[in-house]
Write a structure and sequence with these properties.
Keywords: Cell outer membrane, Membrane, Receptor, Signal, Transmembrane, Transmembrane beta strand, Transport. With 914 residues, the protein is mostly beta strands. It is 13% helix and 45% strand. A hairpin with a 2-residue loop joins strand 13 and strand 14.
């Protein structure tokens, strides 16, 4: 009996072995004979296959007998079919080809299609682009894409947008990483590269220009960026990259206060296919440098610096927003000493005399230590070739600075994202959560003001002493001695500032740490935001069922749990829950001999803060003019619910000044505008000068509501002779209920307008609200890519954006030049065995006006050159890159109030990077 069973099992095993034979092989570049990793090797007509590993090897199990046809494909190589008649090693060579016009994208329609056939404008960056880029960070590569604007608030915080509405912390641009919305749950905007993919784990990055709400939700009015990480089944092996560099090479240039400083970036990725079913990857990246410091000392009150204007308020000088009219102090001094009348009376007759407290420049006040740590672990298990489970955990922590109503120094800020996903051949079910911790965030403006007050109060009502009484006393003594008002003012400031702690001193740090450790809700400036986001999405592709068209539909549920303990939202007593429900569908049908592709997308969104749901639509048509030429047209009617920040924010940004959402919960519930009306801040300033109540202008604020846009785009893409790729487009958009910001003030508890004459009796607000005007934006863009053969490639792109009918009361954040262009020229492999490569880019922006919460002004024109040269060590599977960004070290800004950016020069060693 035992022998019979054993024989039977051996027969089964032998049958299994014969039924499941293995084909192994190696794939190389036919020109250089190098191995080619991440090549797809599939058995034709099946879902069975493999990817080549970092040694170029593959292993495919054949279950239905020989012969079989292997289909080998990889971007940048000609696809090749190999007929295999039996098991055994295969030695395959692939012919390199230009990638121009061959790129495929997913984000434009949620399914795979060629980029030039996309119904909307889309830009793509792939792994090879990143390897050959002079930028040390892939995230900064997007500033060279057509139609893209960026604001660099600090080295670790870059904000991206398209179509002109550009500001630091843009809540209308969506950033998605591996299917997860990358926003900070409380802030509602992506926080740059603090969380997301590490440098070595980017498979591709796609940027959708303009409204993309129909597929990606209501935050996508200004565009969407979708990033995809590398699949560990496809990208295998250990990779490492070490970058060492230097910046701030010329101290004092463009007010750069730092001298030459080191830059470090270390990245490691390990991807392992353990079996045909299980694979994992681990990613770690650490970046450290001395940050660019904002050092614009321009006086926001007008001409003159601190020595010429006693009321000086510097753009990047913090604490100077504490100001007062010293006339009441002059009157008090004259009442006590009548002999001062000959000096005081002429001063009073001149009108107001505004004097500000002395401020602190950013360097020495905010830390210049830029740090970023990112880690990621992902596990994948295939139950069968068409059913895969994915679990991942991503964590980011760092120091960064961003600009809004003031400068915010995010110190030890961290964000975690955790995902579980089940993916079938035609569907996926994804759930994830994002968890935010604001760490020790320093709010530059009010912290500096409170440091001044803690050291010496502006005025102590109990003692009658303070900074201003001392200032006025010294002023009058100096004028009595014959000095002019301006000279006496400078003497008075020096006298009142005696003993003031210097930035970085022991006393200064004690005061700063004390104030920054007290929550804003209790009189300090600490954020205690630990908001969370929970999201579940189900999508199904019905194409195999409906047959006549491509149909994708999905459901999405999202819950924001706002938990700032009253420091960012009115959530002192308990967290605030905001839920969103969405359903979407996308249908594509080809007609007229498959030459015309028609598509329609619909999305239903409901937000629990607002009574009515909204429906977003997108209609598009793509006409194939010839085999490689396409005309596209799209229309989108998109709605955007105000973000949690635009609706519910209530944040201290200066002494007695708040950045605020426009929800009625705040307007009348907290600020009591129904009892104590809001006046425009400009009219309050006018009233303080004239004392004429008629100068005060009421400003009616209503409960904020969703904004919408009707967007049209017409474009043309063509690949000519396989060598020249062109893309041109024009767009026109009409915005309704456009959300901008207005500066107002009221006097809580006081109805007498005279209360506005006392700075301590009124509060300022920068409030989000809907403008009544219809705002129009329009623009055009063009790009040309030319394959010059022998791996030489040149690209040029040009774009232009305009805004009409703007509401002059609103800060609209349309911060872009009327035109901009980028040029790129490079080679991906030349010389013996194509070991060498290089890439250069040129970016030009003319001067343009930039609005932001705490200041507005002109950003000067900039012309920036980046370059790199690489040499490959073939036997060591390594590359050495020598490069630099802004190699001429011509400092430039891309945001008003943001730092000037100088040159960064580096050398990189990369091992097994592909």
């Amino acid at each position: 009996m035992f022998r019979t069973v054993t024989s039977f099992l051996l027969i089964l095993l032998s049958l299994g072995a014969s039924a499941q034979q293995v084909v192994t092989g190696n794939i190389r570049n036919s020109d250089t004979k190098e191995v080619v990793p991440a090549v797809s090797v599939m058995i034709k007509g099946t879902q069975t296959g493999d990817y080549t590993n970092d040694q170029g090897n593959f292993r495919v199990t054949v279950r239905k007998g020989f012969p079989v046809t292997l289909v080998c494909s990889s971007l940048g190589f000609e696809s090749k079919e190999i007929v295999v008649s039996g098991p055994g090693p295969q030695h395959i060579e692939l012919q390199p080809v230009s990638v121009l016009g061959r790129e495929v994208v997913v984000s434009a329609s949620r399914f795979v299609q060629k980029k030039i056939e996309s119904p909307v404008t889309i830009e793509r960056i792939g792994t090879k682009d990143i390897i050959n880029s002079p930028q040390p960070s892939y995230y900064n590569m997007v500033q060279g894409l057509k139609g893209v604007d960026v604001t660099t608030s600090s080295m670790m915080f870059t904000t991206i947008t398209t179509r002109g509405f550009n500001t630091s912390g843009n809540t209308n641009f969506t950033q998605i990483v591996d299917g997860m919305d990358n926003q900070a749950p409380g802030l509602n905007f992506p926080i740059g590269a603090v969380i997301g993919l590490t440098e070595l784990d980017v498979d591709n990055l796609e940027v959708l220009s303009g409204a993309s709400s129909a597929l990606y939700g209501s935050r996508g009015l200004n565009g969407t960026m979708v990033m995809t990480g590398k699949d560990p089944f496809k990208y295998q092996g250990l990779s490492a990259q070490i970058t060492q560099g230097i910046n701030h090479v010329k101290k004092g240039k463009a007010n750069d206060p730092l001298g030459p400083s080191p830059y470090y970036d270390w990245t490691v990725r390990w991807g392992k296919k353990v079996s045909e079913r299980f694979a994992f990857k681990i990613n770690v990246q650490y970046t450290q440098a001395k940050d660019w410091m904002a050092s614009d000392t321009t006086n926001t009150n007008g001409p003159g610096g601190p020595l010429q204007d006693p009321g000086y308020n510097g753009v990047n000088v913090y604490g100077t927003k504490t100001s007062a009219d010293i006339n009441p102090f002059l009157e008090g001094a004259m009442a006590q000493v009548p002999e001062l009348a000959p000096i005081v009376e002429p001063l009073l007759a001149e009108g107001h005399h505004i004097v500000s407290r002395t401020g602190y420049p950013e360097y020495g006040y905010l830390s210049s230590d830029a740090q970023l740590f990112k880690g990621n672990v992902e596990l994948r298990y295939k139950f069968k070739p068409t059913l895969e489970a994915i679990v991942s955990a991503t964590y980011g922590q760092g120091n960064a600075v961003y600009s809004n109503d003031t400068r915010y120094a995010l110190t030890r800020f961290h964000l975690g994202q955790y995902r579980a996903e089940l993916r079938g051949q035609h569907w996926f079910l994804r759930a994830y959560t994002s968890r935010e911790n604001s760490g020790r965030t320093i709010i530059a403006g009010p912290t500096a003001q409170l440091i001044n007050e803690a050291w010496k109060p502006s005025y102590d009502g109990n003692t009658g002493d303070g900074w201003y009484p001392q200032y006025v006393s010294a002023l009058l003594q100096s004028m009595a001695a014959g000095q002019s008002y301006l000279d006496a003012s400078n003497v008075a400031r020096s006298f009142a500032d005696q003993g003031r702690p210097l930035a970085g001193s022991t006393e200064f740090l004690r005061l700063k740490d004390s104030i920054a450790s007290i929550p804003t809700s209790k009189g300090g400036t600490l954020f205690t935001d630990k908001s969370r986001l929970f999201n579940t999405e189900l999508q199904y592709n019905f194409t195999h069922l409906v047959k006549f068209a491509e149909l994708i539909a999905g459901l999405n549920y999202r819950l924001y749990r706002l938990d700032s303990k009253g420091t960012l939202f009115p959530d002192n007593e308990s967290p605030i829950d905001v839920a969103e429900y969405s359903a979407y569908a996308h249908l594509t049908k080809k007609v007229i001999r498959n030459k015309l592709s028609l598509a329609a997308a619909f999305r239903y969104d409901k937000n629990t803060l607002f009574a009515k749901p909204r429906v977003t639509t997108r209609l598009s048509a793509v006409l194939e003019v010839n085999k490689e030429s396409f005309i596209r047209f799209s229309y989108q009617n998109a709605y955007s619910f105000p973000s949690n920040i635009q609706a519910l924010q209530s944040t201290l940004v200066d002494y007695n000044s708040f950045a605020s959402g426009g929800s009625d919960r705040l307007l009348n519930g907290v600020y009591q505008f129904d009892k104590y009306p809001a006046y425009t801040l400009a009219s309050v300033d006018s009233f303080q000068r004239t004392k004429n109540p008629a100068d005060l202008k009421l400003f009616q604020l209503n409960d904020i509501k969703p904004q919408s846009v009707d967007a049209f785009e017409l474009g043309y893409s063509s690949l000519i002779a396989g060598k020249v790729l062109i893309d041109v487009l024009g767009y026109y958009s009409t915005w309704k209920n456009f959300i901008g910001y207005v500066n107002v003030a009221n006097t809580p508890g006081e109805t007498d307008p005279a209360a506005f004459l006392d700075r301590n009796k009124y509060i300022q607000y920068n409030i989000a609200y809907n403008g009544a005007e219809k705002v129009n934006t329009y623009g055009y863009a063009a790009s040309v890519g030319v394959d010059l053969s022998h791996h030489f490639l040149a690209k040029v792109n040009f774009s232009s954006d305009f805004l009409n009918n703007k509401n002059n009361n609103q800060v609209n954040n349309f911060n872009t030049p009327n035109y901009k262009f980028n040029i790129e020229f490079g080679n991906t492999g030349f010389g013996k065995k194509e070991r060498c490569s290089f890439n250069t880019t040129f970016r030009y922006r003319p001067a343009y006006f930039y609005q932001i919460g705490f200041a507005s002004g002109t950003v000067p024109a900039s012309a920036v050159i980046d370059a790199q040269f690489s040499y490959r060590l073939l036997q060591a599977h390594s590359t050495i890159k020598l490069g630099g960004t802004n190699i001429t070290n011509t400092y430039y800004r891309n945001g008003f109030g943001s730092p000037a950016i100088g040159g960064l020069y580096y050398i990189t060693y990369a091992y097994n990077v592909f």
